[in-house]
Q: What sequence folds into this?
C-alpha cells in the first residue's frame, strides 16, 4: 500500500587525522621528544606542593581560630547587645550621613562646574573677563554707596545745624521748638 517514495538516507564518512599519528601509523615528531612531563614541570610541582600545603594549613588554622573567637564572643554580644546594637546603628548612620553629604557635595560641585562651563560656551567669555567685570561692578557700587552716604551724612549735618540752636535739651527732655535763650 505504501509506495516507495522515500529517499534513502545517505551517510557520509569523514576521516579525521589525529596530529599524533601520521598516515603510516608512526608517532609524529611533535610527541617523540616528550614521553612525559618535563623536568621543569616536575620541579615546579615539587616546589609549589609545599607552598600550597602551607597556605592550605594556614587557611584551616585561620578558620578554626575564627570559629573559636565567634564561639567565645557570641555570649558577650548577646549580653551586651542592648548597648552594642544602638552603638553600631549610630556609628553606621553617622558614616552613612558623612558619605551621603560627601556625595551630595561632589554632585553639587560637578553640577556647578557643568553650569559654568555651559555658560562660558554660550557667552563665549572666559572666567578672568567675568571676574574683571564683576570687580568693576562692585567698585562702581562701592563708589555709588560711598557718595550717597556722604550726601545723606551732609544732609543730616545741615539739618542738625539748622535745628540745633532752636532746640534746647535739659536732662534729656525737649523744652519746645523755637525757644531761645
A:
Amino acid at each position: 500500500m505504501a509506495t516507495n517514495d522515500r529517499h534513502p538516507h545517505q551517510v557520509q564518512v569523514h576521516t579525521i587525522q589525529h596530529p599524533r599519528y601520521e598516515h603510516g601509523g608512526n608517532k609524529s615528531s611533535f610527541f617523540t621528544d616528550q614521553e612525559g612531563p618535563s623536568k621543569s614541570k616536575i620541579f615546579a610541582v615539587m616546589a609549589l606542593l609545599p607552598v600550597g600545603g602551607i597556605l592550605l594549613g594556614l587557611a584551616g588554622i585561620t578558620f578554626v581560630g575564627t570559629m573559636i573567637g565567634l564561639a567565645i564572643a557570641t555570649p558577650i554580644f548577646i549580653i551586651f547587645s542592648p548597648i552594642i546594637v544602638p552603638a553600631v546603628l549610630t556609628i553606621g548612620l553617622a558614616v552613612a550621613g558623612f558619605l551621603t553629604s560627601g556625595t551630595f557635595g561632589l554632585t553639587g560641585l560637578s553640577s556647578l562646574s557643568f553650569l559654568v562651563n555651559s555658560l562660558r560656551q554660550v557667552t563665549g567669555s572666559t572666567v578672568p573677563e567675568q571676574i574683571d567685570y564683576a570687580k568693576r561692578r562692585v567698585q562702581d557700587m562701592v563708589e555709588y554707596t560711598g557718595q550717597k552716604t556722604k550726601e545723606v551724612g551732609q544732609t543730616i549735618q545741615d539739618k542738625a545745624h539748622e535745628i540745633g540752636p532752636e532746640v534746647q535739651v535739659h536732662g534729656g527732655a525737649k523744652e519746645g521748638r523755637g525757644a531761645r535763650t
Summary: The radius of gyration is 48 Å.
